[in-house]
Specification:
The chain has 296 residues and is α/β, with parallel strands linked by helices. It has helices at residues 4-56, 91-106, 108-112, 123-131, 149-164, 217-295; strands spanning 76-81, 116-121, 136-140, 170-180, 183-192. It has a single domain (26-251), classed as ATP synthase, F1 complex, gamma subunit (Pyruvate Kinase, Chain: A, domain 1). Helix 1 (4-56) runs antiparallel to helix 6 (217-295) and helix 5 (149-164) crosses helix 6 (217-295).
Length: 296
């Protein structure tokens, strides 16, 4: 059985850990509130630019923008968005597992033919996939230490350039979409070619077909498509960061609760051991007194 000193030392150690987890929870809560505000502010703009393109594209004839045109898929790029830091529970584990399932089941033929490449956003995803020999087209680490729109622009510019140079023919993004403080949803979206706003089959529903555009509708679409992708990857980063902070807040709260329960359990063991030690000392004193009486 552990000595009283060992038990006391362990209790003090757990109390120190509990102070750290409590502080981390408070920091995550502050960051979460700000991240949640940013996500809710970004969604309407991303939705509106997508809506504008959905209505505009069907009205333009002979639109040949390569970001919209589907081509034979010979090589695929998967963008995996994780966090840079740990202490987030199963946030990264579940996402990486989902990415592996996506790669190994849906795109297994591209893995076998070495025609699948990855873009990792976040240190955790980069560490995992680089150690397992996956082909990496690009990596972006320490993205979430200081979230900037310029980072999103660099990511999407690199991806668009790779797509235009035909280094890959399809781009899939997988990330954690923020739902609430206790829930995030792993989402898989196709980024390139852009199919979510291609509304040719709904041309009769387009409500701006009678407008005259200056410059031309084609020029507007060519100008807006990169901005649309930039906005979407920015939204993805914000969604992932808000989900990360929510996960860290939950994980640290559980860690704090577990630490308190463990301290209570160890305190009970300490008290029992201390009581046993006192009882033993009393018995030894009484035994010694009895022995003195008998000897006298």
């Amino acid at each position: 059985m552990a000595s009283l000193r060992d038990i006391k030392s362990r209790i003090n150690s757990i109390k120190s850990t509990e102070k750290i987890t409590r502080a981390m929870k408070m920091v995550a809560a502050v960051k979460f509130r700000k991240a949640q505000e940013n996500v809710l502010a970004a969604r309407p703009y991303a939705r509106k630019i997508s809506e504008i393109l959905k209505n505009l594209i069907p009205t333009i004839e002979n639109l040949d923008n390569e970001l919209l045109q589907e081509r034979e898929v010979k090589r695929i790029c998967v963008v995996v968005v994780t966090s840079d830091r740990g202490f987030v529970g199963s946030f990264n584990t579940n996402l990486i597992k989902a990415a592996q399932v996506l790669i190994n089941e849906k795109y297994s033929e591209y893995i076998k033919s070495h025609n699948l490449t990855l873009v990792t956003v976040g240190r955790k995803g980069y560490t995992f996939f680089s150690k397992r020999g996956y082909d990496l087209f690009a990596r972006y680490v320490d993205v979430f230490d200081r979230i900037e729109f310029l980072t999103a622009r660099k990511i999407i510019n690199d991806v668009i350039q790779g797509y235009r140079e035909k280094k890959f023919d399809k781009v899939i993004v997988i990330y954690n979409e923020f739902k609430s403080a206790i829930q995030a949803k792993i989402v898989e979206e196709q980024f390139l070619p852009i199919v979510s706003i291609n509304g040719e089959e709904k041309k009769e529903e387009a409500n701006i077909s009678n407008f005259i555009f200056e410059p031309s509708g084609k020029e507007i679409v060519d100008y807006l498509l990169p901005k649309h992708l930039n906005t979407q990857i920015w939204r993805v980063i914000l969604e992932s960061f808000a989900s990360e902070q929510a996960a860290r807040m939950t994980a640290m709260e559980m860690a704090t609760t577990n630490a308190n329960e463990l301290v209570s359990s160890l305190q009970l063991i300490y008290n029992q051991a201390r009581q046993a030690a006192i009882t033993k000392e009393i018995l030894e004193i009484v035994g010694g007194a009895e022995a003195l009486k008998e000897s006298s």
